[in-house]
Design a protein that fits this description.
By secondary structure, the protein is α+β, with helices and mostly antiparallel strands. The chain contains 14 helices and 20 strands. Strand 13 and strand 14 form a beta hairpin.
């Protein structure tokens, strides 16, 4: 995702952009080996939608036309967070919850339609060309049992690493005499497992899904969200030593550990239509390319800053990185690599603050970024109170969602009217299985999927 969006931006500045891809790309919206997390829940939050729309105008509408559900928050979700139920008041943010293969396929189709962008498929990078001062290309080889294993070089004016959280670029930089980046890590040991279901309309709720957010006192989580084609994707999570099983019976039984039986009851009634897939590589990793590195080399997406996937930020940050790349390249006649890298790095900062800030409080968190600083304690105390008040107070809730969805800066949570509301006391929200006067779940999902899509701002009032 990050590589495609970077290619879209770079095509406006370079004569030719080559996307080096390990996989043979599928012709439709299918999972592929190079994206092992694609079978799990992905959401595109508001900030990501805005960034994506600025890069590929009309893409959000294409996603909705292709069946990606449009889920209003908090209206359409039964949400438990920070030990409280969220009031299901009118939506102030929307999630696009189509599957990762669908989102990637539509982006790939748009980007690769540009004749300036080409792909080298079934090809993997094994090193860099250049020296400590400048990177001048990559060393590649073809993959596959029948392919030639000979090495060849692709010479380039700029190399962008978008190879994900498991990037090998630090070692490649060291091999040409360049300084590898310092890495900051924070790992809670979170693991998750996912399964696709089909379910009959649930008369017990008019919600579109469930969201159970883990915290230090309750370390198990669940996300139940609609995807395209009338399916529902369920992801359950736990920390190291308490990972969800990858068999159907064990997966269903694991949901008993959640703080409310509603997800377990839903799973018992639903029909699984896929295997259960597990994933454990969930550490927060930030590589400080903003501080060191040769000219001619940039990192973006998870190769630069990878987050605990439970916070749903990855796709949005890939888009925000690409927007920052576009703005940095356009801000000077010939911007240096360091200038551009710092701009891309800054576009990841808020998501890092959210993900790492939350994970520092989880039991058993490890890594060189796991320690909390004394200077952060007053801010952390205030943000914890914001989170608790967001459940029942619509004003605080709207501000909290806007910041979490990367649509507003975290500083907006310190605005005077928010601070006054945070200091006040309020009654907890009731169990939100039903909204007053709401429609049944199946009817609401049909409405959201097939409502007007010509307006990026969402469904028109009254639809």
């Amino acid at each position: 995702m990050a590589g495609l969006l970077a290619a879209r931006v770079l095509a406006d500045h370079y004569a030719r952009v080559t996307v080096v891809e390990r996989d043979r790309l599928p012709e439709s919206a299918d999972p592929r080996p190079g994206v092992p997390q694609s079978r799990h829940t992905h959401v595109l939050v508001t900030g990501g939608q805005q960034a994506l729309e600025s890069l590929l105008p009309g893409l959000v509408g294409e996603l909705r036309e292709a069946g990606a559900p449009w889920v209003g928050v908090p209206r359409d979700l039964v949400q438990w967070q920070a030990g409280a139920w969220y009031r299901r008041t009118p939506a102030t943010a929307h999630l696009l919850t189509g599957s990762r293969p669908l989102t990637e396929w539509l982006i790939r189709r748009r980007v690769l339609a540009d004749p300036r962008v080409e792909t080298a498929q079934g090809t993997e990078v094994v090193g860099l060309e250049g020296d400590a001062a400048r990177v001048g290309g990559v060393v590649v080889r073809e993959r596959g049992s029948g392919a030639s294993q000979g090495l060849r070089s692709l010479i380039a004016d700029l190399v962008v690493d978008a190879s994900g959280r498991s990037s090998k670029a630090p070692g490649w930089l060291a091999a040409i005499g360049a300084e590898p980046p310092r890495e900051e890590t924070l790992d809670t040991g979170l693991a998750y497992a996912s399964c696709v279901y089909r379910a009959e309309a649930d008369d017990s709720t008019d919600s579109l899904g469930y969201y159970i957010v883990p915290n230090p006192g309750q370390v198990h989580g669940a996300v139940v969200l609609p995807v395209e084609d009338g399916r529902t994707l369920v992801t359950l999570s736990g920390l190291r030593g308490g990972e969800p099983p990858t068999d159907h019976d064990g997966f269903t039984d694991f949901a008993r550990r959640l703080p409310d039986p509603l997800v377990h009851r839903w799973l018992v009634k639903a029909e699984p239509v896929s295997a259960v897939h597990g994933f454990r590589n969930t550490a927060n990793i930030r590589r400080r390319y903003d501080r060191s590195g040769p000219e001619g080399f940039l990192a973006t997406g998870d190769a630069l800053c990878a987050f605990n996937p439970v916070y749903g930020q990855g796709m949005a940050v890939a888009a925000l990185n690409a927007v920052a790349l576009r703005e940095a390249l356009g801000s000077r006649r010939t911007p240096g690599t360091r200038h551009v890298q710092r701009a891309v790095f800054r576009s990841s900062q808020q998501a890092w603050d959210i993900s790492a800030g939350s994970d520092k409080t989880m039991p058993g968190a490890t890594g060189n970024a796991a320690a909390s600083r004394a200077v952060d304690r007053p801010v952390n105390w205030y943000l914890a109170r914001v989170q608790r008040r967001a459940a029942a107070d619509p004003l605080v809730g709207a501000a909290f969602r806007s910041a979490l969805s990367l649509a507003s800066p975290l500083t907006s949570l310190f605005a005077p009217r928010i601070a006054r509301a945070v200091r006040s006391e309020g009654r907890p929200a009731p169990h939100p299985t039903r909204r007053g006067g709401g429609r049944p779940r199946a009817a609401r999902l049909r409405r959201e999927q097939h409502g007007p899509v010509n307006q990026f701002t969402g469904p028109r009032s009254g639809t």
